[in-house]
Each structure stands twice: as C-alpha cells, then as structure tokens.
Write a structure and sequence with these properties.
It is a single chain. With about 325 residues, the chain is of the alpha/beta class. It has one domain: TIM Barrel. It is built from ten helices and twelve strands. Helix 5 packs parallel to helix 6.
C-alpha cells in the first residue's frame, strides 16, 4: 500500500510544514461514545503509523485529556510527524470525583474527575498548551488550533489569536489556526488574522458543501485546510448509508441522497467511504483529510481509502445526477 502522504502534493504551507494527505483524529481514542482500552488505542496509532500516516490531531476536550495522554505514549520516540492539539477548554478538577464512569456531558466515556471550562484568554491559552504538552510528553507541538470558539468570537480573535501568534513568532509552535464545525467564524479568522491552518469539520463533504466560501477564501490567502468529519458522523461511513448525520439521527431525505451517491459509487467500483475521504482533497485549499480511528483495523482501513485515486467519471456522474454541485 502506498504511504498516504509523507508530504502533501499541495506543497509547503502552514508555517512551512509539509502537511500529509491523511491524518489520524484523536477523538475516538479519547473514548468518544464508547470506551477504548489503552491497548486498542495504542494499536490504532501504531497501525496508522505503519500505514504511513504522519499527522496526528488531538485536544484536551477529547476524553478530558485521555486522547492526549494515549497519543503521546503511542508516539513516544518517533519523529518526522506533525502533531496538532487545541486550546480553548481548560480541564479543572470536578466535584464528581475521579471514580465516576459513564459518558460525560460531551459524549466521552471517561471518569468525571475533571470538567471543561471555556477560556480563550492569553493566560488560559498558555496554561492549556502547557498542560497539553505535559499530557503528550513532548516539549512542543507543530500546530495549535483555537477549538470551537462559537460562543466566544471576541475573546478568540482578540486574546487567543494574539497569544498563539506570539508563540509562533517565538518559534514555540510552527503553525496556528482555528478548528470548528461551522465555516462563518473561521472565515473571519482568515480575513482578519494571519492564521496558517483551519480545521473544518463536516462542512465540506459529499453531503454538505456549505463551507465552500471558507475554502475559497483559504485558497486565496494561502491558508491550509484540514478536512475533518468527512463521513458526517457516520452517514457516509458505509456503503449502505444509515444512522447519524452530524451526531443526530439522519433525516430521511439525507439518507436517500447518501444512498443515491452510494449507488453511483458502486457503478464505478468505488466504495462510498473512499469517495467521501477523497472528495475534500479536490479543493486546492485542502491539504489533509483527518479520520478518526479507535482500533488497528479502523486505522488500516482509513489509510487504504486514499491508496488510489477516484475516477473522474464518478464525480461527473454525481454532478449529472444532481447529487453534487458542479
């Protein structure tokens, strides 16, 4: 299997980083929805590494720091990869105590020993990053993203961004940006700041291209895009679409549309997940597709999705069938 991208064909960007075509998203090994053992989490990271994956993304939010601890342990001693984490949520001790299990209020199956507190201040950003480095067991990371500042645009733009820009100027991090599930606020960052990277989740997929204005702005300004949520939380993850769209039960009309896309893919000998993973990379701003995995099997399967190109005729037929905008 060809490596899925020691370097992107989009050339250097994002603070001089060569971003690979495929990255591993760390939410699943933070026990998103379902608990994962330490052994399975390590096996997922090791399988991704063996398959050539060289970008790893995590956040304090993912399992109240569990994802960062597991990812740091699995990557210990390795080099030549891009490591990304996020700021905006501080983890503070909780009165619930560390022994309580069950999904927290964000859907992670972890003990409730800590709670998340929004903080986009300069001090909050610096503290968050310092604690992330400790959990990861590394002296620095390559990319730091402002995470989900939907309800805090002023603080994110006026406090968090300048703090990260100063760290970049000092050489403490190589690239900075924002990661969100919407496109409008990231577009403000692209217009009003000097960020390097945007992580956009779920808004440029086979079923939702609403983020296209953001991607076009990124292409114009030279901002790299990490495309996440390309399966829209599950509807595009199998050849027989069903289940959830953006973490909620999928509306019938979207299920029908996804099945129409799957039928076109089948006629071209392509699986729906392969097409879903390949689609964002057709935009010139998108350097990387970030896919989560909770096991070695999932990590290997994800890497295989990008091991050969999708026929151009497939995209043309999707347009002709009215299933994809021209």
């Amino acid at each position: 299997m060809p490596a899925p991208g020691p370097a992107s064909d989009r050339g250097p960007g994002a603070g001089g980083l060569a971003l690979p075509r495929l990255g591993l998203g760390g939410a699943p090994i933070g026990n998103l929805f379902t608990a994962v053992t330490d052994e399975d989490a390590r096996a997922a990271v090791e399988a991704a590494w063996r398959a050539g994956v060289r970008l790893y993304d995590t956040a304090p939010h993912y399992g109240l720091g569990l994802s960062e601890r597991r990812l740091g342990a699995a990557l210990a001693g390795r080099s030549g990869h891009v490591l990304s984490t996020k700021v905006g949520r501080l983890l503070v001790p909780s009165d619930a105590g560390g022994g309580t299990r069950g999904k927290d209020d964000e859907g992670f199956d972890v003990p409730a020993g800590h709670r998340r507190v929004w903080d986009f201040s300069r001090d909050g950003v610096l503290r968050s990053l310092e604690e992330s480095l400790e959990r990861l067991g590394v002296p620095s990371v390559d990319i730091v993203l402002i995470h989900d500042p939907d309800g805090h645009p002023r603080e994110a733009l006026e406090e968090a961004y300048p703090a990260l820009a100063a760290l970049r100027d000092q050489g403490a991090v190589r690239a900075i940006g924002v990661g969100m599930n919407q496109w409008e606020l990231p577009a403000r960052f692209v217009r009003e700041t000097d960020i390097d990277v945007v992580m956009l989740a779920g808004r440029y997929t086979l079923l939702d291209q609403s983020g296209l204005p953001l991607l076009d702005a990124c292409a114009e300004r030279g901002v790299r895009v990490l495309a996440a949520g390309v399966f829209n939380s599950g509807l595009l993850a199998t050849d027989r679409p069903s289940g959830t769209f953006d973490y909620r039960p999928a509306p019938a009309e979207l299920v029908a549309r996804a099945r129409g896309v799957a039928a076109v893919c089948e006629r071209h000998g392509v699986t729906l997940p392969r097409a879903a993973a390949a689609f964002p990379l057709r935009h010139p701003a998108v350097s990387t597709v970030v896919l989560g995995a909770r096991s070695a099997a999932e990590a290997g399967r994800n890497a295989a999705l990008l091991d050969r190109p999708v026929p151009e005729d497939l995209w043309a037929e999707l347009v002709a069938e009215g299933l994809l905008a021209a």
